[in-house]
UniProtKB/TrEMBL annotation:
Name of the protein this chain belongs to: Ubiquitin carboxyl-terminal hydrolase 7
Amino acid composition bias (Basic and acidic residues), ranges on this chain: 65-74
Gene3D superfamilies documented for this protein: Apoptosis, Tumor Necrosis Factor Receptor Associated Protein 2, Chain A (2.60.210.10), Cysteine proteinases (3.90.70.10), Phosphatidylinositol 3-kinase Catalytic Subunit, Chain A, domain 1 (3.10.20.90)
Gene name linked to the record: WBGene00108366
Keywords annotated in UniProt: Hydrolase, Protease, Thiol protease, Ubl conjugation pathway
Chain residue ranges for the region called Disordered: 1-110
GO CC annotations on file: cytosol; nucleus
Species assigned in the record: Pristionchus pacificus (Parasitic nematode worm)
Molecular function per GO: cysteine-type deubiquitinase activity
Organism lineage string: Eukaryota, Metazoa, Ecdysozoa, Nematoda, Chromadorea
InterPro entries: MATH/TRAF_dom, Papain-like_cys_pep_sf, Peptidase_C19, Peptidase_C19_UCH, TRAF-like, USP, USP7_ICP0-binding_dom, USP_C
Length: 1311
C-alpha cells in the first residue's frame, strides 16, 4: 500500500484509520509501527535474528528462507485486501469483482474535497433532511422572525415536493392537550470514540436488542467462535484439502458459520513473499439449510476477529458488509493474515498451537424465506409492487398515527363504491388488513384508486411528496364530515416570518401555515462542515437572521432593491435525538404548553440521488417505559435496537461504524409529549363501522375462493353448452355470438376426470332441466364445436375463423368411462341438439349415420324483417342433391304453422355461408352435395341460407344483405396530429373530431365528400391518411392518383386486405385520419411542399409549410412566406432565405440565397442536417459595401464540435472595426446587460475548431482577409461549409437542464 500511495499518479483516496494514540491499531495494520519488545531500549523487529533465544522456530512445511524470517514484521504484513467470497469452492467470485466491498478497501474521496491521509471520517451529503412533528409548533427567532426571499434549498414555508432526496414534514396542532406522562429520558447517542471502539473490539453478543434471548434463532445479532488446534499442521495442509467450520449460530432465522482455510499467497510485487501461506477467513450463511431451491437474500455486516492470547495485544479485526444469497453465501478475506504472523508467539495470537477466530454478525431480516413478521414483532408489512417502498414507509407511519387511522375509519363509503376508484375505501382496507392479516398486505387496489397504472408502480418518488399529496387528498375527502378538521388538527403549524431592511425604515412580515419543516443538515459555518451537526443546531440555523445583500437584495417596493435579513439552507451529516425540546423557539406561550416531542418514526433512505430504497423505523410503544423499535422493510418487519433506528442513521460515510453505509435518516416523525395519549389512542374493531368489517371480510373470503380456484385450475376445464334455443335466437354470422360463452348458463367448470357418462347425465339434469333418463329413444345429441378457417385456393388466403359443428360425441361401451379432457380437449364447446318435429309428423331427433350423412344448419332470409335466422337442422345423405331437400327446408320454416301453404320449391335460392366475408351463391342445386361445385367443404356443420325469390329482388336478397352488414363499419373521424410524414398538412388547435358510418367498398372520392360534409370543409382541400395494417397509425397521405383510381377504396385506406381483413363480429370502430390543407389536392403535384423556419427580430422561430411552384425560384419561396411572416414595426420589410445548420455540431448560418436561385438548387443544398430559414433583412445588411463582411455568429458551450445551441445569425462587420464595437452591437442585438455579456467569451472558429479566443483588452480589430469568403447571392454546393470562419460566443447554455438529471414524474392522485 505504501508503494502505491507514494506513486505520483496515485489517486487521492480516503483510507480508514483503524487505530489512534489511545487505541492502537492491530499489529497487522501496515500504518502502525510494531511494539518494542519489553525491556529493550529501542524498537526491535518482532521477528528477531536467528541467534536470539526468543526467536520461535519456523513452522515446518512453510518453505520460507531464513532471510525472510529476519525481516521486520511490518514488511511481512498483508496488503489491504477487499473481502471476497471463498475461492476454489462453489459460488466463487473473481477477486477484482466490483461488488467486493469492505471497510479496508480504498474508497474514492467525496467529490470536491481534498483530504489528507490521516482523516478518519468521510462525509455523505444528502439534499435535505426531513423532520415531522405531531402536534403544533410556531417557530420564531431570537429577536426577530426571518422571512426567506431567495432560498435555494430549504424554506420556512412548505417547499415544492419534488426534491429527490429531501423535503421536510412538520405536523401539529396546539388545541389538543393531555396529561403529562412519566416517560423515559432520552437515550444519549454514543460518542464517536465509543462507536469506533464498540464496532472494533466489542465482540460479545449485543444484549440490547430489546432484551432478546440469544437462544432466539430470529435474533438480530450473533456471536460465532472457532478454535483451530494444531495450527502448525493446519498451515502445512494444502488449501483444497482442509478447512475448519464452526458450529451454526442462528441469526434472523438463518444458520451462520465461520469458515477457515489455509491459502497460498502469490505476491508478485515481492519475491520473498511469494508462495507463502495465509489464513482464509470467511463468514458463511448456509441458507440452503432452510430448504432446497429457496431464493433468499440477507444483508449482513460483521467484524471478523483473530483473538489475542496475550494481555495488552488487541485482536486483529477486519469488517465486511455483504448481501448473502445462494450464489454468494460466503464472504470474507482469502488472505486475512500470514500464517507466520499467527504462528509467532511474540505476536500474541497463538497459545498451545491454537488460535481462536470470532465473528460478531449483525443481520437484517431476510427476504425470500418464511419470515413470520406477525410472530416476531406483532405487525405485518406491505408488499412492494416494484418501486413502492417509499409509499409503504409513509403508509406504515400513518397506520401507527392512531388518531389518523381512527378518523379514516369514520369516512363513509357507499356499498356500491368501487374500491379501485375510492382512495378512502382502499386506504381503509389497507389499514384493516394491517391490523388483522398474518401475511404482508397488498397495495395494488390502493394504487389503482390513485389512478396509477402498472408503470407508476415501478417509478420511485419522493416519500415526502407522496405524504403531502395523500394528506391533501384525504383532507378534501374529509370536508363536510365529522372528521373535517382532523388533518389540520394533527399536521398544521405556523411560522411568523419577516424581512426588515437595514438602511431604510421598511419591514414586511407574514404568518404562514406549514405542514412540514425543512431543515439543513449542514452548518452555515464553514469551519463546522467536517463536524457533526445536530437537529437543535439545525433549528437554530433555521430561525437565524441572515443578511440579504449584493445580488440577493430584497425588493422593498418604492425603496428599490435593499439589503435585508433572511435565511439560506445547506446540507451535511446530521445527528438527532429521541427527545426534542422546542420550548425555546415558541413565543407567546401563555398556556404554558410543554413543547417537548418524542421521536416516533424514522424514515430512512439508502442509496443516492438517482434512487435507492426506503424503510421506516417506528417506535411502536412510545408511551411505554422501554422503547420498542421495529423496522418496516416492505413485506418484512423485524425488531430493531435504538442504535439501528437512530444512531446508525445519522448519515455520512463512516466506515468505522458497523452497519449501513450510504444510509441516512430522511424524515423524522415526532409526537408532542402531552399529546401522546390522544395521538396514539387505542384503535379497536369497535372503532370500525360494522358494514366496513363485513365488506372487508367478504372481500377476503372472495379473494381466498378465487385464489383456491386458481390453485385448483389444473384440475378443471371449461365446458360451454350451446343449445338449440341459443342458436335460434342468434342473428348474424355463424351460429352464436362468442360473447355468450361467458354467460353463467353457458359456461361450466367440470373436473377433467369427469367421464362421458357423467357428462351426458349432467346435460340431462342441469342443461336440459331433468329430461327423462336415456332409453331406446335418445332425447338429445351432443356435438363438438371447433374453430377453424377455410383456405381459398384461388386467392391463396385463409378465411376468417368460424365455429362449426365437426363431430358427434358418441356414448358407447368403448368410451363410456373416458374422461372429457382426453375426449374434448382444453376448451370444449358443445352443441346440444334437441328433438324436433319431423316432416312425417313425428317428434324426435333426425336419423343420422356418421359414415354417410351430413348434419346441416339451415338459415332463412326474411326480407320483411331484414334478417337471417336459424330455423333448424337437417341430416342429408352426402349423395343427395339440394333439390331433394327443399321440402325439408320448407318444413322447418313453417313447422309452427303447418296449415300454411308451402311456396313453390323451384322458387327457392340457396347460399352457403362459408365465413363472414364469403357468402357464395349455389348455382346448381340439382348437383349432389359431394360435387365440388356444391359445398366448400364436405363435412358436418355446413350452414345453408335459402330465400323465396318471389319475395326478394336484385337489390334485396340474402347476398346483398350479408354484403351490406359486412361492409358497413362505424368510424371515428380524427385529425392527424403527427404530420411529420406530410408537412403541408395543417393542424388546428381546436380540431373537429366526429363519428360516422361508412362502407368498405366506397371509393376514396366519395369518402372525402362524406368527411368534408361532416367537417363542413372543402373536400378538395382535405387530406386523408392511409393506415398501417396492425398499428392503425397514419403512414402515407392519399395522393391525387389514388383519389381518381376506382380500385382504391375504403378497405385499402384502412389496410383491411390480405390477412388483416375486416371481421364484423368484433364490432370494431375504425379510425379515419384527416388534415386540412391550404391548397387543393389536385394542385399538390404542381407545387413543392417545403418546411421553413421564420425568424423574427426577437429571435423567435416559427415553422411553416409553404407550396411554391416546383419550377420557381427563391423569390417564389419568399412570396409564399410573406403572408405568414410577422414583420417588425420599423423593419425593412425585405425577406431573405438563409441556410442554417440544424445539429449541435453545425448550428450556425451557412449561406444567403439569392432571389433568382432555382428551388431545385436550394433543395439540393439543404440536406437533412440543415434547415431553411426566412428572416427579415436587417437595415445595415440591405447593402454590402466593399469593406463590409457578413460574419456568421453562433453560440456554443466549451466546445463547438458537439455543444452548439441557440439561434445563429449574421452580423455586418467592417474592415478595421474594433471588436469592442462589435461586442457592443452584439450586446444590443441579443438584448443583454453589461453584466451578462461579461460572461461571454469571443472566439474565432473555423468549422468546429476554435482558432483562438479574442483578447478585447488588446483592442483587436476586424481583418476581413482573415475571414473566409462567404458567398452572398447564391450557392451551388455545401462542400466548403466546414471551412467557414465564424464568430463563436462561448457561454453557459441556460436553456438546457442537467444532462445527468432525471425528469421525475410528479405524484398525482387522480381520484
Amino acid at each position: 500500500m505504501d508503494n502505491f500511495l507514494s506513486r505520483p499518479d496515485a489517486p487521492n483516496y480516503d483510507v480508514e484509520m483503524v487505530g489512534d494514540e489511545n487505541n492502537p491499531a492491530p499489529i497487522a495494520d501496515p500504518r502502525v509501527q510494531p511494539r518494542p519488545i519489553e525491556g529493550s531500549q529501542r524498537p526491535m523487529d518482532p521477528l528477531q535474528r536467528p541467534t536470539d533465544p526468543r526467536l520461535p522456530r519456523p513452522i515446518e512445511g512453510l518453505q520460507r528462507p531464513l532471510e525472510d524470517l529476519q525481516r521486520p514484521l511490518e514488511e511481512l504484513q498483508m496488503p489491504m485486501e477487499s473481502p471476497r467470497p471463498l475461492e476454489g469452492l462453489e459460488n466463487n467470485t473473481e477477486p477484482n469483482d466490483p461488488r467486493l466491498r469492505g471497510s479496508h478497501q480504498l474508497q474514492p474521496p467525496m467529490e470536491g474535497f481534498q483530504r489528507p491521509l490521516e482523516v478518519r471520517r468521510s462525509v455523505k451529503f444528502s439534499v435535505d433532511f426531513v423532520t415531522s412533528l405531531l402536534q403544533p409548533l410556531t417557530i420564531y427567532g431570537e429577536e426577530s422572525e426571518p422571512m426567506e426571499t431567495n432560498r435555494p434549498i430549504a424554506t420556512v414555508a412548505p417547499m415544492p415536493t419534488a426534491l429527490p432526496l429531501g423535503a421536510p414534514l412538520v405536523v401539529g396542532d396546539s388545541d389538543l392537550e393531555g396529561p403529562s406522562l412519566p416517560l423515559p429520558q432520552p437515550q444519549p447517542a454514543p460518542t464517536k470514540k465509543e462507536a469506533v471502539i464498540k464496532s472494533l473490539y466489542q465482540i460479545e453478543p449485543d444484549e440490547n436488542l430489546n432484551n432478546v434471548s440469544m437462544s432466539d434463532p430470529y435474533k438480530g445479532t450473533g456471536y460465532l467462535r472457532l478454535d483451530i488446534p494444531n495450527f502448525s499442521e493446519f498451515c502445512r495442509l494444502e488449501q483444497d484439502k482442509t478447512q475448519r467450520i464452526s458450529k451454526s449460530v442462528w441469526v434472523r432465522g438463518l444458520p451462520w458459520k465461520i469458515l477457515a482455510i489455509p491459502r497460498i499467497v502469490d505476491n508478485r510485487n515481492d519475491r520473498t513473499l511469494r508462495h507463502t501461506k495465509a489464513l482464509g477467513f470467511f463468514l458463511q450463511c448456509n441458507g440452503g439449510d432452510i430448504g432446497e431451491g429457496a431464493t433468499w437474500n440477507c444483508v449482513a455486516s460483521a467484524s471478523l476477529h483473530v483473538l489475542s492470547k496475550r494481555p495488552g495485544v488487541e485482536p486483529h479485526v477486519r469488517r465486511i458488509t455483504h448481501t448473502f444469497y445462494p450464489k454468494e453465501n460466503d464472504w470474507g478475506y482469502s488472505s486475512f493474515m500470514h500464517c507466520e504472523q499467527l504462528a509467532n508467539p511474540m505476536n500474541g495470537f497463538i497459545e498451545n498451537d491454537t488460535i481462536t477466530l470470532a465473528v460478531h454478525v449483525y443481520a437484517e431480516a431476510p427476504h425470500g424465506v418464511a419470515w413470520d413478521s406477525r410472530k416476531h414483532t406483532g405487525f405485518v408489512g406491505l408488499k412492494n409492487q416494484g418501486a413502492t417502498c417509499y409509499m409503504n414507509s409513509i403508509l406504515q407511519t400513518f397506520f401507527f398515527t392512531n388518531k389518523l387511522r381512527k378518523a379514516l375509519y369514520q369516512l363513509e363509503c357507499s356499498p356500491e363504491e368501487d374500491p379501485e376508484l375510492s382512495v378512502a375505501l382502499s386506504l381503509q382496507r389497507v389499514f384493516y388488513d394491517l391490523s388483522h392479516s398474518d401475511k404482508p398486505v397488498g397495495t395494488k387496489k390502493l394504487t389503482k384508486s390513485f389512478g396509477w397504472d402498472s408503470l407508476d408502480s415501478f417509478l420511485q418518488h419522493d416519500v415526502q411528496e407522496l405524504c403531502r399529496v395523500l394528506l391533501d387528498n384525504l383532507e378534501k375527502k374529509m370536508k363536510g364530515t365529522n372528521v373535517e378538521d382532523m388533518i389540520p388538527t394533527l399536521f398544521k403549524g405556523k411560522t411568523s416570518s419577516y424581512c426588515k431592511c437595514i438602511q431604510v425604515d421598511y419591514e414586511s412580515s407574514r404568518e404562514e401555515i406549514f405542514y412540514d419543516i425543512q431543515l439543513s443538515i449542514r452548518s452555515k459555518d464553514p469551519s463546522k462542515h467536517n463536524t457533526s451537526f445536530t437537529i437543535m443546531e439545525a433549528i437554530q440555523d433555521y430561525v437565524e437572521v441572515e443578511t440579504m445583500d449584493g445580488e440577493n437584495k430584497y425588493d422593498a417596493g418604492e425603496f428599490g432593491m435593499q439589503p435585508a435579513l433572511s435565511n439560506v439552507k445547506v446540507n451535511d451529516r446530521f445527528e438527532f435525538t429521541d427527545v426534542l425540546d422546542l420550548n425555546e423557539f415558541v413565543r407567546d406561550n401563555d398556556e404554558g404548553i410543554d413543547f417537548t416531542y418524542y421521536l416516533h418514526a424514522v424514515l430512512v433512505h439508502s442509496g443516492d440521488f438517482h434512487g435507492g430504497h426506503y424503510v421506516v423505523y417506528i417506535n411502536t410503544d412510545v408511551k411505554g417505559k422501554m422503547a420498542h423499535w421495529c423496522k418496516f422493510d416492505d413485506d418484512v418487519v423485524s425488531r430493531a435496537s435504538f442504535r439501528d433506528a437512530v444512531v446508525a442513521n445519522y448519515g455520512g460515510e463512516d466506515p468505522e461504524v458497523l452497519g449501513r453505509i450510504f444510509t441516512n435518516a430522511y424524515m423524522l416523525v415526532y409526537i408532542r409529549k402531552d399529546q401522546l395519549d390522544d395521538v396514539l389512542c387505542e384503535v379497536t374493531d369497535d372503532d370500525i363501522p360494522p358494514e366496513l368489517i363485513e365488506r372487508f371480510e367478504k372481500d377476503k373470503t372472495d379473494e381466498e375462493n378465487l385464489k383456491k380456484e386458481k390453485q385448483d385450475a389444473h384440475l378443471y376445464q371449461n365446458v360451454f353448452f350451446i343449445t338449440d334455443e341459443l342458436v335460434k335466437q342468434h342473428r348474424g354470422y355463424d351460429l352464436f355470438d362468442v360473447k355468450i360463452l361467458e354467460r353463467p348458463d353457458v359456461h361450466r367448470r367440470l373436473e377433467k376426470s369427469t367421464t362421458l357418462e357423467k357428462l351426458f347425465n349432467y346435460v340431462r339434469s342441469d342443461i336440459l332441466n331433468g329430461a327423462k333418463r336415456m332409453d331406446e329413444d335418445i332425447r338429445f345429441r351432443l356435438w363438438k364445436f371447433a374453430e377453424h378457417s377455410v383456405r381459398d385456393e384461388r386467392q391463396h388466403i385463409m378465411s376468417l375463423p368460424r365455429f362449426r359443428v365437426t363431430d358427434e360425441i358418441f356414448l358407447n361401451e368403448e368410451n363410456y368411462q373416458k374422461d372429457i379432457w382426453s375426449c374434448l380437449g382444453e376448451r370444449a364447446i358443445i352443441y346440444v341438439e334437441r328433438p324436433q318435429m319431423r316432416i312425417d309428423g313425428t317428434f324426435g331427433l333426425m336419423s343420422y349415420n356418421c359414415n354417410t350423412d351430413l348434419m346441416i344448419f339451415v338459415k332463412y332470409y326474411d326480407p320483411s324483417a331484414k334478417e337471417i335466422r336459424v330455423i333448424g337442422t337437417c341430416c342429408v345423405h352426402f349423395q343427395a342433391s339440394l333439390s331433394e331437400c327443399q321440402s325439408d327446408f320448407l318444413h322447418l320454416l313453417y313447422v309452427d304453422d303447418p296449415d300454411k301453404p308451402l311456396p313453390d320449391p323451384s322458387k327457392l335460392r340457396f347460399y352457403e355461408e362459408v365465413s363472414p366475408e364469403k357468402v357464395k351463391t349455389i348455382e346448381s342445386p340439382s348437383l349432389p352435395f359431394s360435387n365440388d361445385l356444391m359445398l366448400n367443404e364436405l363435412q358436418d356443420g355446413a350452414i345453408l341460407i335459402f330465400e323465396n325469390t318471389d319475395l326478394t329482388s336484385n337489390t334485396d336478397n340474402a347476398r346483398v344483405y350479408t354484403d351490406s352488414i359486412y361492409n358497413t363499419i362505424e368510424v371515428d373521424i380524427l385529425q392527424n396530429d403527427d404530420i411529420s410524414t406530410f408537412p403541408c398538412a395543417m393542424v388546428d388547435n381546436t380540431p373537429v373530431n366526429t363519428t360516422g358510418t361508412v362502407n368498405l367498398q366506397w371509393r376514396i372520392d366519395r369518402l372525402v365528400e362524406y368527411v368534408g360534409e361532416k367537417l363542413q370543409w372543402d373536400p378538395n382541400r382535405l387530406m386523408l391518411w392511409r393506415l398501417a395494417a396492425y398499428s392503425e397509425k397514419p403512414t402515407h397521405a392519399v395522393n391525387e392518383s389514388q383519389l381518381r383510381h376506382g380500385s382504391f377504396r375504403v378497405k385499402e385506406l384502412l389496410s383491411l386486405t390480405g390477412d388483416a381483413i375486416h371481421d364484423p363480429r368484433k364490432q370494431k370502430r375504425y379510425k379515419i385520419y384527416y388534415n386540412k390543407i391550404p391548397i387543393s389536392v389536385q394542385e399538390l403535384d404542381k407545387r413543392k411542399q417545403m418546411r421553413v423556419t421564420m425568424l423574427d427580430d426577437k429571435f423567435n422561430c416559427v415553422e411553416a409549410t409553404i407550396f411554391p411552384d416546383k419550377l420557381g425560384t427563391v423569390r417564389n419561396i419568399l412570396e409564399e412566406t410573406k403572408p405568414l411572416f410577422r414583420f417588425s414595426e420599423n423593419g425593412t420589410g425585405k425577406l431573405r432565405l438563409v441556410l442554417c445548420g440544424a445539429t449541435n455540431s453545425n448550428r450556425r448560418v451557412m449561406a444567403i440565397f439569392g432571389e433568382d436561385e432555382p428551388i431545385t438548387a436550394v433543395m439540393k443544398a439543404s440536406p437533412q442536417a440543415f434547415q431553411l430559414r426566412v428572416e427579415e433583412t436587417p437595415a445595415d445588411q440591405m447593402v454590402k459595401g466593399i469593406h463590409d463582411h457578413f460574419l456568421a455568429v453562433a453560440h456554443f458551450e466549451k466546445t463547438p464540435s458537439e455543444r452548439m445551441f441557440g439561434v445563429p445569425f449574421f452580423l455586418r462587420v467592417s474592415e478595421g472595426e474594433s471588436f469592442l464595437d462589435v461586442r457592443e452591437r452584439l450586446r444590443q442585438r441579443l438584448d443583454l446587460t453589461e453584466k451578462e455579456i461579461e460572461k461571454y467569451k469571443f472566439a474565432i472558429v473555423t468549422g468546429t475548431r476554435v482558432n483562438r479566443y479574442l483578447d478585447l483588452d488588446q483592442d483587436e480589430r476586424v481583418k476581413i482577409s482573415d475571414l473566409s469568403h462567404l458567398r452572398f447571392g447564391g450557392i451551388s454546393e455545401m462542400r466548403g461549409a466546414q471551412h467557414i470562419v465564424w464568430l463563436g460566443l462561448d457561454h453557459f447554455n441556460r436553456s438546457k437542464g442537467s444532462e445527468k438529471s432525471r425528469v421525475e414524474k410528479a405524484i398525482v392522485i387522480h381520484n
